[in-house]
Specification:
Strand 13 (459-460) and strand 14 form a beta hairpin. The chain folds into 2 domains: 2-136 and 388-504, GroEL-like equatorial domain (GROEL, domain 1, Orthogonal Bundle), CATH 1.10.560; 198-359, GroEL. Helix 5 packs antiparallel against helix 17. It is elongated and about 90 Å long. Helices cover 49% and strands 15% of the residues. It has 527 residues and is an alpha/beta fold. Strands 3, 4, 5, 6, 7, 8, 9, 10 and 11 form a 9-stranded mixed sheet that branches.
Length: 527
């Protein structure tokens, strides 16, 4: 009976680990079929019947209905990958699943968790160093390989790849290497639009007055983070003669202040809130653009591009000289009536580029935007950190190096390195599987080909399943995408493997004295 009891104890000890590993496998199964050039799409349907069809890993993960805490940890890591690099979320998720699965397998066989984690840390550290060594720098933004990177990350949409490359060339290499700049943030997708790149901004708001001139050159710009209207008085005060006279006085003062804008020959007024009907009348008569109810990000970007200061409506009370010091400038402003957009071009402030991605129908707008953002993020990552052989080839090369070093290890942490080696095989295996080939066979073929050629430039052609030079296929990936994906996957895998017990917390708002309904306030969470 003792062995049986001991076995039950072991099973109970591993229950949390196995539960978490199963959750990670389940969440990864939802997106691994999207990987590679032959990856398929996923349809997400909400309770109202709204449908999203996408190939984007992080979009699938974020829109899934997930309750398991370990699964949510994995989603958070994928989200972090997206925020940091902008691409590689599927790779990150697949690597994390493999690390967790292989780690659990070793623990079940009796290897202490701490030794597995120790080996994983060591293996990932060495793997990251190797990827950095393999990375080849991109010498300039005119390098042909950049269009290839955008094409691969853009899921073989040639028009989007060309658009992203033009945008990159427009902003320049120095801007792309700026840690505070994201090329993907310049993307707007809209139904019925043509693909376009230009220096300037798009504001997706109709101007409130149809009588305003449709185009203005050399325009002064006022940006108000407030309502454009007269000061208000208490509603009850309007019922008194004094209050009503005060109301008329404030309206007249407001009209007088608006005339300052006319005298200063302002061409564009942007506001975060509404435009009062008096302002509409005065500005329309003067031929001044007014765009209201702009989001804070759009308002701030317009201020930065034109060189204007963000001000409150109280600025209208200041003198013309003080008011003019708050203004920005734009070479051209006009409205695209077809797309209901106002465009600001040639601002005197911070240069900004806009990538307009066209979409045929409303249903594909979101997916076209996601594709373009992935392509832009990959291109920028390549410029910043160089490129490595793609299609899972560099991971196989790193796995081979680790396997050679692993032979010299004589302690149980070697099992953690084994987990890293197996995880590094997974990207190529998944690409092969999604392309209709035997993943085990193709991994071994690429492994052997690299070994025989003594080169990392050997990989899988997903079109015909043949193994050959990956550089001839022009399949490359940004090194930073690979580095961050492996690093993030290792961090979440370690966090999950370290969980020994799962406990349900008591309700923070419970009966007096802090006691829970269950008596002791603690219970094992059942998934």
């Amino acid at each position: 009976m003792k062995p049986a009891a001991g076995g039950a104890e072991v099973d109970e000890r591993l229950a949390a680990l196995i539960s978490n590993a199963n959750a990670v496998r389940a969440i990864t199964a939802a997106i691994e079929g999207t990987m590679g050039p032959k990856g398929l799409d996923t349809m997400l349907v909400d309770r109202f019947g709204e449908v999203t069809i996408t190939n984007d890993g992080v979009t699938i993960l974020e829109q899934m209905d997930v309750n398991h805490p370990a699964a949510r940890m994995l989603i958070n890591v994928a989200r972090a990958q997206q925020e940091e690099i902008g691409d590689g979320t599927t790779t990150c998720t697949i690597l994390a699943k493999a690390l967790v699965s292989e780690g659990v397998n070793h623990v079940v066989r009796g290897v202490p968790v701490v030794r597995v984690i120790q080996g994983m840390r060591q293996g990932i550290k060495q793997a990251l160093e190797l990827i950095e060594q393999y990375a080849q720098p991109v010498k300039g933004i005119d390098e042909p390989i950049l269009e290839r990177i955008a094409y691969i990350a853009g899921r073989e949409n040639k028009d989007i790849a060309e658009l992203v490359v033009r945008a990159a060339q427009l902003v320049g290499g120095e801007k792309l290497r700026d840690e505070n700049f994201r090329l993907s943030d310049t993307i707007i997708a809209q139904e019925g639009a043509d693909n376009e790149v230009f220096m300037g901004l798009i504001l997706n708001r109709e101007r409130p007055c149809s009588q305003v001139l449709e185009k203005r050159d050399d325009a002064k710009v006022l940006v108000i983070d407030d309502v454009l209207g007269p000061e208000e008085i208490e509603e009850g005060a309007l019922g008194t003669e004094v209050g009503f006279n005060k109301y008329l006085e404030l309206q007249e003062e407001f009209r007088s202040n608006l005339n300052k804008l006319v005298d200063l020959d302002i061409g564009l007024v942007l506001t975060s809130r509404s435009v009062h009907n008096i302002a509409e009348e005065v500005l329309a008569d003067a031929g001044i653009f007014a765009v209201d109810r702009l989001a804070s990000d759009a308002l701030r970007a317009a201020a930065e591009h034109t060189g204007a200061r963000l001000v409150k409506r109280s600025v209208l009370k200041k003198s013309k000289a003080e008011l003019e010091s708050c203004l920005g400038f734009a070479s051209h402003i006009y409205e695209d009536e077809k797309l209901d957009q106002v465009r600001i071009l040639g601002g005197k402030g911070k240069p900004m580029a806009t990538m307009l991605v066209g979409a045929a129908t409303e249903e594909v707008v979101g997916e076209r935007e996601r594709i373009a953002r992935d392509a832009a993020s990959s291109l920028q990552a390549a410029v910043k950190g160089g490129v490595v052989p793609g299609g899972g080839a560099v991971e196989i090369a790193v796995a081979r190096e680790l396997a050679a070093k692993r032979q010299q290890m004589r302690n149980m942490s070697a099992y953690g390195v084994d987990a890293v080696i197996e995880a590094l095989k997974r990207p190529l295996a998944q690409i092969a599987s999604n392309s209709g080939f035997n993943p085990l066979e193709k991994v071994e073929e690429v492994w052997a080909a690299q070994l025989n050629a003594d080169s990392i430039d050997m990989g899988l052609n997903p079109e015909d399943g043949k193994v050959g030079s990956i550089s001839e296929l022009q399949v490359v990936d940004p090194a930073l995408v690979k580095i961050y994906a492996l690093k993030a996957a290792g961090e979440v895998a370690e966090a999950i493997l370290r969980i020994d017990t799962i406990i349900k917390r008591k309700d923070p708002i419970g009966p007096p004295g802090g006691a829970s309904d269950s008596g002791d306030g603690v219970a094992v969470l059942d998934f």
